[in-house]
């Protein structure tokens, strides 16, 4: 009789786990933004010849610095990863002689980007 109860327990447990495994789409998954969230207003503050410290002050630390090219920084942002409404944005910042020379990516280049900040 004891072995029948043990067998029944394991059978019910196995069937329950198998049934709930198929319901994984019912499980709530929280959306966690990953990377640097930038707005166009942040990017609009960038100017040619800004130092690395000034760029960090405006945009924050980059998610990734190119291992093979220390003059390239990548700002990446992902939200709703793997879902139909996934959002991805990127901004690549390039330096020469520790001065900002160009930007590219999903943001518009500021109209005043080529006007350097006033040197004091």
UniProtKB/TrEMBL annotation:
InterPro entries xrefs: BamE, BamE-like, BamE_dom
GO molecular function, one term: protein-macromolecule adaptor activity
Keywords: Cell outer membrane, Lipoprotein, Membrane, Palmitate, Signal
Ranges for domain Outer membrane protein assembly factor BamE: 35-104
Taxonomic superkingdom: Bacteria
GO cellular component, one term: Bam protein complex
Keyword field contains Lipoprotein: yes
Membrane topology: Lipid-anchor
Alphabetical GO biological process terms: Gram-negative-bacterium-type cell outer membrane assembly; protein insertion into membrane
Compartments it resides in: Cell outer membrane
Signal peptide: 1-21
Keyword Membrane: yes
Pfam name, any one: BamE
Cited HAMAP family: OM_assembly_BamE
Function in brief: Part of the outer membrane protein assembly complex, which is involved in assembly and insertion of beta-barrel proteins into the outer membrane.
Subunit structure, interactors included: Part of the Bam complex.
Family label: Belongs to the BamE family.
Protein name: Outer membrane protein assembly factor BamE
Source organism: Pseudoalteromonas lipolytica
Gene for this chain: bamE
């Amino acid at each position: 009789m004891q072995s029948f109860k043990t067998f029944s327990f394991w059978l019910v447990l196995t069937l329950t786990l198998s049934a709930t495994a198929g319901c994984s789409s019912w499980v709530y998954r929280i959306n966690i933004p990953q990377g640097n969230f930038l707005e166009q207003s942040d990017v609009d503050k960038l100017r040619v010849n800004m130092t690395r410290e000034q760029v960090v002050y405006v945009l924050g630390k980059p998610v990734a610095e190119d291992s093979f090219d220390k003059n390239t920084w990548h700002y990446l942002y992902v939200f709703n990863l793997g879902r139909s409404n996934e959002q991805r944005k990127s901004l690549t910042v390039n330096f020469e002689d520790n001065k900002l020379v160009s930007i590219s990516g999903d943001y518009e280049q500021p109209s005043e980007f080529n006007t350097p900040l006033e040197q004091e």
